[in-house]
Write a structure and sequence with these properties.
heterodimer, A: alpha/beta, Alpha-Beta Plaits, 2 domains, four-stranded antiparallel β-sheet, 11 helices, B: mainly alpha, globular
Chain lengths: ~325, ~325
C-alpha cells in the first residue's frame, strides 16, 4: 500500500469537558475520495482545521503528506487545498481578482496564475462571471469559486467542507464529476465532509460515518450499506391500492411486513435477505404497474440513520 | 507531486520564511483602501477642513503682517494659530478630529470584516503565518494614512505660499517633515486601537467602541486628569496640582502629540512643562534648532511610539490567540 496522504492516530480535540473529536483514526491514500459524513456538529470541521494546523489537537497524532501540521503549517497549507463551509470572498473584488490574491499568497507567478485562473473558471463553470464583483454572486456561484480557489495551488490533497450545499442538482453533478476526475486523473486525495449523504456517496471510494466526534462506521459505501444477513427494506411505488398489493403478495413466504410509505401509493415492504428480486417479479406477474423500486437498506442515508439512532440511544442511557 | 520532491518544497518555503505573505496582504489592503469610497470621503473631508483652517490662519497672519515679519518659523504658524471664522488651529483639529477619524476609519473593520464575510478561514488556509495577516493590515492602514497626511502637509505648504506669498525656509521644511512623521505615529495609535477592537468585536461594535474611546479620551480626558491630579497632589499647592495634572495627562497620546507638535512647529518654544513667572523672568529668548526642539519633545515622541506599539502588540496577541472557525 502506498504511503498514506492523511493519517491520524487517536486524534482528539476537547473543549472543556466535551470531546468534539474523539480518538479518530483516519487513513487516506493518493487518488482516493474519502467521505467524512455526519450531521452538523459531529466534529467534521474541527477535524479539518486540525489537519490544516489551524486548530491544535488535544491529543493524538496527525500526518499530512508525512508532515505534522502543527509544526509545519506552511508546508502543509501550500500543498493542501481547502474549501471552507460557507466560503466567503471579498465582495468588492471580482472573482478573478479574488483568485489572483490566493495565487499570490501561494507564490504563483502572474502568468502562471492567470493561466491557472482561466482554466479553473472553465472547470467550475464561471467563465462568464469571472470579471464581476463577487458581491453579486449567488451562494452557489461562490461555492464554485471556492472550489476554483482551493485548486489554484495544484493541491495534492483537496479538503472540501460541505461542497454541495447551495448548489443546484445539476451543479452538484458537475462538481462531483470534477472531483472524481481530479482524483482519478491527477491522483489528488479528496477529503469530502458533508451531511448530504446520498449526494456524495456515489463518488466516495470510502466513507467514515461521524457522529458526536466518533467514527461509528468506516468502509466502502456498499460494504456499509449491505448489512450482512438482515432483512431488506424496499420502497415501491405502484399504480394500485394496498389491498391489490397485499393480494399479489398473499402467499409469498419472503414477505415480512408491508405498510404505507411516505407518498400516496407507495409502500414500505420488508423482505428476507436477497428476496428483493422475487418481490419485484411477483408484483409484475400479478400485473401491477410498478413505477419505482428503491432498496432502502442500500441507501447510505438509512445506514447513517441507523448508526445515528444507535448512538443516541446509548448516550441517553 | 512525487514523494521525492516534497521535502524540497518544504525547505524552499522555510528558506523564504516570513516576509512574502504580509507584503501580499498589505498590497491588497492598500489597493482596496485606495479604491474604496471611504478613502474618497475621508480625502474630501481632510481637504475641506484643512483648507478652511489654514486659509483662516493665513488671513490671521496677513492681518498682523507688519508685526509678523521676522518672527521665527512664521510659516509654521499656519498650523498652530487659529483665526476667525475657524475657532481651532490645524494641529488641534488634527489631534481631536481628523487624526482619530483617519485611524479608526482604516482599522475598525480590519479583522471583523474578514470574519463577517467568511474570508478568514480561507485566508488562513493559505501558506502564510497568521501574524502576517494583521501585520499586513496594519502596514497598509499606516501607509494610506501616511500618504494622506503627507499630501495634506504639502497641500498646506502650497496654500501657505499662495496666501502668504512666502516660501518655507529649509529649516521650516525640516520641522514640517519631522512633525508629519510624529503625526503619522499619532494616527497610528488610533489605527492600532481600532484594529485591536476589530479582532474581538463585530464591525458595528468595534466602530462604536472606537468612537466611545475617542469621546472619553478627547472630550473627557482633561476632566479625568484634573480630577486625578487633585487626588494625588496636596490641594493647597496649586503648582503641585498643575504639575501632577500635566504628568498624568501624558498618558493620553493626544496630549503627547499636542505637546510634540507645539514644540516642533515653533522654534521659540523651549519646554512643554509648567513655567512659573520666576523661571520665565530672566530667560534669554533664543530660537531652538530642530535638533534641540526634537530633544525637548523626545520623551513625547518615544511615548507615542510606545503606546502605539503596545496597542498593536495587544491587537496582535488578541488575534493570534483566538481560534478561527468557519
Amino acid at each position: 500500500m502506498a504511503a498514506p496522504t492523511i493519517l491520524t492516530r487517536r486524534l482528539t480535540k476537547q473543549y472543556g469537558e466535551t470531546k468534539v473529536v474523539n480518538a479518530l483514526d483516519l487513513r487516506t491514500s493518493a487518488g482516493e475520495i474519502f467521505g467524512l459524513l455526519g450531521p452538523n456538529g459531529a466534529g467534521k470541521t474541527t477535524t479539518i482545521l486540525m489537519l490544516l494546523g489551524m486548530v491544535e489537537p488535544t491529543s493524538g497524532d496527525i500526518e499530512v503528506l508525512g508532515l505534522d501540521p502543527a509544526r509545519n503549517p506552511l508546508a502543509v497549507k501550500s500543498r493542501v487545498g481547502y474549501l471552507p463551509d460557507a466560503v466567503g470572498f471579498y465582495p468588492d473584488l471580482t472573482g478573478r481578482e479574488n483568485l489572483r490574491f490566493t495565487a499570490e499568497l501561494n507564490r504563483l507567478s502572474r502568468t502562471e496564475a492567470n493561466r491557472r485562473i482561466d482554466s479553473l473558471l472553465v472547470d467550475v463553470g464561471l467563465v462568464d462571471s469571472g470579471d464581476q464583483p463577487v458581491g453579486v454572486y449567488s451562494r452557489g456561484m461562490k461555492q464554485r469559486l471556492g472550489i476554483a480557489d482551493a485548486l489554484i495551488k495544484r493541491p495534492e490533497i483537496l479538503i472540501l467542507d460541505e461542497p454541495t450545499t447551495a448548489i443546484d442538482p445539476e451543479g452538484v453533478a458537475e462538481i462531483l464529476g470534477l472531483i472524481s476526475r481530479l482524483a482519478k486523473d491527477e491522483g489528488v486525495t479528496i477529503l469530502l465532509a458533508s451531511h448530504l449523504l446520498h449526494q456524495v456517496q456515489a463518488v466516495c471510494d470510502r466513507v467514515a460515518i461521524f457522529v458526536k466526534g466518533r467514527v461509528v462506521a468506516q468502509g466502502a459505501p456498499h460494504e456499509l450499506a449491505t448489512d450482512s444477513k438482515g432483512p431488506e427494506e424496499v420502497e415501491i411505488s405502484v399504480g394500485a391500492d394496498e389491498a391489490a398489493v397485499r393480494a399479489a403478495l398473499a402467499n409469498q413466504k419472503f414477505l415480512r411486513s408491508l405498510k404505507p410509505g411516505r407518498l400516496p401509493r407507495s409502500y414500505l415492504i420488508e423482505v428476507d435477505h436477497g428476496s428483493t428480486n422475487k418481490l419485484v417479479s411477483s408484483l409484475v406477474e400479478a400485473g401491477l404497474p410498478l413505477t419505482s423500486v428503491r432498496r432502502l437498506s442500500e441507501d447510505l442515508d438509512e445506514v447513517y440513520r441507523r448508526y445515528f439512532h444507535a448512538e443516541e440511544a446509548t448516550s441517553s442511557v | 507531486m512525487s514523494e521525492a520532491t516534497a521535502p524540497m518544497h518544504a525547505l524552499a518555503l522555510a528558506d523564504e520564511g516570513v516576509g512574502h505573505g504580509w507584503r501580499v496582504v498589505a498590497r491588497k489592503e492598500f489597493a482596496d483602501h485606495l479604491r474604496s469610497i471611504r478613502f474618497l470621503v475621508l480625502a474630501a473631508i481632510l481637504a475641506i477642513v484643512t483648507a478652511a483652517t489654514v486659509v483662516a490662519a493665513a488671513g490671521g497672519i496677513r492681518s498682523v503682517a507688519s508685526q509678523a515679519m521676522g518672527v521665527p518659523g512664521i510659516f509654521l504658524r499656519l498650523l498652530t494659530i487659529e483665526s476667525p471664522p475657524v475657532p481651532f488651529p490645524f494641529i488641534f483639529v488634527l489631534m481631536n478630529f481628523l487624526g482619530p477619524f483617519l485611524g479608526i476609519a482604516f482599522g475598525f473593520d480590519a479583522i471583523s470584516s474578514e470574519k463577517s464575510a467568511g474570508t478568514l478561514p480561507r485566508l488562513l488556509a493559505q501558506p502564510i503565518h497568521r501574524d502576517e495577516v494583521i501585520i499586513g493590515k496594519f502596514v497598509a492602514g499606516l501607509s494610506i494614512i501616511g500618504m494622506m497626511l503627507i499630501a495634506t502637509t504639502i497641500f498646506i505648504t502650497g496654500l501657505g505660499m499662495f496666501r502668504l506669498g512666502l516660501s518655507p525656509t529649509p529649516g521650516e521644511i525640516g520641522r514640517l517633515v519631522v512633525w508629519v512623521i510624529v503625526a503619522i505615529i499619532y494616527v497610528g495609535f488610533w489605527l492600532a486601537l481600532s484594529i485591536l477592537l476589530s479582532t474581538r468585536a463585530g464591525v458595528a461594535t468595534s466602530i462604536l467602541a472606537s468612537l466611545g474611546l475617542w469621546l472619553v479620551l478627547i472630550f473627557f480626558g482633561s476632566f479625568i486628569f484634573s480630577g486625578a491630579a487633585n487626588l494625588v497632589a496636596p490641594a493647597d499647592d496649586l503648582v503641585a496640582v498643575a504639575k501632577a495634572e500635566i504628568l498624568l495627562s501624558r498618558i493620553s497620546p493626544a496630549v503627547l502629540f499636542s505637546e510634540a507638535s507645539t514644540v516642533l512647529l515653533d522654534p521659540t518654544q523651549r519646554t512643554v512643562d509648567l513655567v512659573t513667572v520666576e523661571q520665565a523672568d530672566r530667560a534669554i529668548l533664543s530660537n531652538l534648532t530642530l535638533t534641540q526642539s526634537l530633544s525637548v519633545v523626545w520623551p513625547q515622541v518615544v511615548g507615542l511610539v510606545a503606546i502605539s506599539t503596545v496597542l498593536f502588540g495587544l491587537a496582535f496577541v488578541s488575534f493570534m490567540r483566538q481560534e478561527i472557525r468557519a
